[in-house]
# Entry
Amino acid sequence: MPCGDRMSTTHAGAGLLRSLAVSALVALVGSGVLWWGTDGARAFTAEAARRVEILRAPRVLPAVTLEDQGGARFALDAYRGRLLAVEFIYTHCDSVCLSLGMAFRQIRDQLPAQVGGQELALVSISFDPARDTPARMREYAARFGADGSVWRIARVPDPAELDALLEAFGVIVIDDQRGGYEHNAALHLVGRDGRLSEIRDLDEIAAFTERIGDLL
Amino acid sequence: MSITIGPLHGRARRAARIEQLHAPGLAPASLIYLLLATPWARQWLEATMSAHMLVQIPLLAGCGFLAASALGEARQARLLAALGGPVPCLLAALLASSYWMLPRALDAALVDPLTELAKFLTLPALVGAPLALAWRPLGAIGRGFVWNNLASMLAVLGWLYLAAPVRICNSYSVFDQTHAGWSMVWLALGLFGAWLGSLFVRPLSGPNRSQTRVSTQEGQAWTT
# Structure
């Protein structure tokens, strides 16, 4: 009888110990994965994640050919050596792209007058090349005051190149079933080395401009 | 002696194999799992946030639950003992399901095949199966706790999706997000209602009486 008691006690004790050990292991591994999976509880969404990721490792961009509102074709790489602010738009947009256009206008207006196109450029890239013809882009440019030299509106005519560019930027465009698109809108900064180096939210215009000012 | 053990052993093995083949749940679980893995079903269920979160993910976990339930009581008990009892199993299910509730995990599963594979492996193995193993020994109170924990997690998540000022997933529209948010809130209410209803249909005592006796025996062993 006492022997049986002792045996069941040891058995229960071993079971509890095992339970504790496995629980601790599961908790450790599980919270580790959650920590890693949220970049240390900083990024719970894919949008936040791409911003954290870019800050940690500025991303090389693919070689693409753009066509601007004047119909001129040029390589994205032609901007190398200058700071480049990039936003993604489509001109039929009546919601978030309007804010993007306004944001870019504000950024350009807040820059010191002596900063020319040799140090900094802005480009609004359309992901709707079928509808955004140069004529349509000229209209958009006129609406927001994009001059065509410091600030250009451009489309990527080649669909494969457009896909590669959107993927590198981490921009996802989805059909909104009403003839438009929903897309993650943000302010992107490409460094002089041609790498995507920072992504800011639309309501962080001041911080974005300040960052450009620091780098100029 | 070896002559008698041999055939007996063989017969027992055969019986076990038959039991395995006839285990209810294993066939439907495999079938549902294979169906879910087809490109057609994946595209269909991942097209909207609601179907992704509230149909595909629960079904994947459900496959694991069914498969583990099909193991049979004895093997389930052995496996549960080897894993350290219900607590680590519940913890694993909680942590793994939390990961797949992250909006960025949903987005990543859509664009990254490795994440998609991880989703198909971890939901049955780390959420469904451990829950099934832990389910029987949990008792009515434990089950009620798990059930209502799930309901409250869903309600909070649904509310977050509705209250969020921005799009949470890059791959899903705001409309989709709102729809998913309301679906989660309603589902949470439904889960809570179902649990409440079950209290009247099947009172707290019942199928777990033998189980409670085992735990009290263990309790006595502790006090002596």
Notes: Chain B has one domain: 9-215.
